[in-house]
């Protein structure tokens, strides 16, 4: 059971909720903060104070006063008018993350919603009722208004949801779980949609996928090192300590462990004096991407516990301030940085693929073909990798450098953070497929070299991968292999695989 406080949610806890179906509850202290905040809103309505979004319209309509008897209608109108997202829905896991993050933000007690609103969010989460939320339509400032409005519709018994593997009307799923729809009251509609939870939820899922891929690149690169008989001295600890980047040294250390007992890697001068950059500079390039990933993780964990709606209520309602915490600039930058960092994994991987298939760059069969000329082997797989890498270059263009005014210039600078997070997700899928191609080629290369000479870890990796990806003995529809390899990289419990297959090596290393 994961307990939400509004202050302490971590990425590791979020992973348990998103991928391992951990149940979620709110802490007792957070409920107390929510109740005090709600009392302040009700006092504002009763006293007819002029407070944005509670007794006024929204955006350019902030100067239009709303009668007390119309505050519920105001919230109903807000959600329906703003629920205009378009395009394909976010992946279901992202929708699940939005529920989690919105509940956690509201539990901070600065938003003025009734406890029942948060209870409904948690009920949806624990019942695995996930709103269908179109991906396109958010500018990433004034919050993720359109996406979060589709989430809010479900609380009202409207819209559509994913439930038990099906897409259906929200009211149908709510009825099956005995969940009663809400009538939103003063401030509640605005509190639900004026936040960064769409871009942050997408960013959270991106980071979780990216972290696993970043670790897998090191194992795949280790296979390639063996397939190309790479020089192991490039990974010597002193080289990397001399530069001073922790992440670079950590990459080198992990690769040293993976290839420690390999009979395929070589020493300086044994076959050549030095390797090409795509082999020799793996720690430097991968390490720099890890630096970016660390930055992204830090920003996500701040934003996951942030109050991002407007206005915010402090001091039991004595201080209600219209600010700009809904502006997604921090996450927009983080997602743009993530895009570049992940695109680089594919860039260098594609160069390693070229070295595996190009007969002018190695002593392997041309294009790893079983019958060069009659059979093309991995020739066109390299084309596919090149195409994906080039597509990533377009997607990696920073979204955050763009802005466009909205709401009659009242909202005149926006972050485009949600676009950045969506493009980052596309890049990650492309990177996984490029790595799948490198994996297929590296498996074939080490097979030619003699798998009995592989390191213990890479041999275990080879054995597991070969259960899905057969040896290239005949040209076939390699698209199926690429997708199978990519799916396996996504689904495998990588942490468990490494713990199972590297702990023996630690013991061997310690005895030497």
UniProtKB/TrEMBL annotation:
Gene3D superfamilies: Fumarase/aspartase (Central domain), Fumarase/aspartase (N-terminal domain). Pathway: Amino-acid degradation; L-histidine degradation into L-glutamate; N-formimidoyl-L-glutamate from L-histidine: step 1/3. Keywords: Cytoplasm, Histidine metabolism, Lyase. It catalyses: L-histidine = trans-urocanate + NH4(+). GO terms for molecular function: histidine ammonia-lyase activity. Its EC number is 4.3.1.3. This is Histidine ammonia-lyase. It comes from Bacillus xiapuensis. The lineage of its organism: Bacteria, Bacillati, Bacillota, Bacilli, Bacillales.
């Amino acid at each position: 059971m994961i307990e939400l406080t509004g202050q302490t949610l971590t990425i590791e806890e979020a992973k348990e909720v998103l991928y391992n179906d951990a149940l979620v509850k709110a802490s007792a202290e957070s409920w107390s903060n929510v109740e005090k905040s709600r009392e302040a809103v009700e006092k504002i309505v009763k006293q007819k104070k002029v407070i944005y979004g509670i007794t006024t319209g929204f955006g350019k309509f902030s100067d239009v006063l709303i009668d007390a008897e119309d505050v519920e209608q105001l919230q109903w109108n807000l959600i329906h008018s703003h629920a205009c997202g378009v395009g394909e829905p976010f992946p279901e896991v992202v929708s699940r993350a939005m529920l989690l993050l919105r509940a956690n933000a509201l539990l901070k007690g600065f938003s003025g919603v009734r406890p029942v609103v948060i209870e409904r969010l948690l009920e949806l989460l624990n019942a695995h009722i996930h709103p269908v939320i179109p991906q396109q339509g958010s500018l990433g400032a004034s919050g993720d208004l359109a996406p979060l409005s589709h989430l809010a519709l479900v609380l009202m018994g409207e819209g559509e949801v994913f439930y038990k593997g099906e897409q259906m009307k929200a009211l149908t799923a709510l009825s099956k779980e005995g969940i009663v729809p809400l009538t939103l009251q003063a401030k509640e509609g605005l509190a639900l949609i004026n936040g960064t939870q769409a871009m942050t939820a997408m960013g959270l899922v991106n980071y979780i996928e990216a972290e696993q891929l970043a670790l897998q690149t090191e194992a795949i690169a280790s296979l390639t090192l063996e397939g190309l008989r790479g020089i192991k001295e490039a990974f010597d600890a002193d080289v990397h300590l001399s530069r001073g980047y922790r992440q670079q040294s950590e990459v080198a250390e992990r690769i040293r462990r993976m290839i420690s007992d390999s009979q395929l890697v070589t020493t300086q001068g044994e076959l050549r004096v030095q390797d090409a950059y795509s082999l020799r500079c793996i720690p430097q390039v991968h390490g720099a991407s890890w630096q970016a990933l660390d930055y992204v993780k830090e920003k996500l964990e701040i934003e996951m516990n942030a109050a991002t709606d407007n206005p915010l209520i402090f001091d039991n309602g004595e201080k209600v301030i219209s600010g700009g915490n809904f502006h997604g600039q921090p996450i927009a930058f983080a997602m743009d940085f993530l895009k570049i960092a992940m695109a680089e994994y594919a860039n260098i991987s594609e160069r390693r693929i070229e070295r595996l298939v190009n007969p002018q760059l190695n002593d392997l069969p041309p294009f790893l073909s079983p019958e060069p000329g009659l059979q093309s082997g991995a020739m066109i797989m390299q084309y596919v990798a090149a195409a994906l890498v080039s597509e990533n270059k377009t997607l990696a263009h920073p979204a955050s450098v763009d802005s466009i005014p909205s709401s009659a210039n009242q909202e005149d600078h926006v972050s485009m953070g949600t676009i950045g997070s969506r493009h980052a997700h596309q890049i990650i899928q492309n990177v996984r497929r490029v790595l799948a191609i490198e994996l297929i080629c590296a498996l074939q290369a080490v097979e030619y070299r003699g798998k009995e000479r592989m390191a213990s870890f890479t041999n275990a990796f080879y054995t597991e991968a070969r259960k899905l990806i057969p040896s290239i003995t005949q040209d076939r529809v390699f698209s199926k292999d690429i997708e199978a390899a990519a799916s396996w990289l996504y689904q495998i419990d990588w942490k468990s695989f490494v713990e199972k297959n590297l702990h023996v090596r630690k013991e061997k290393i310690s005895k030497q």
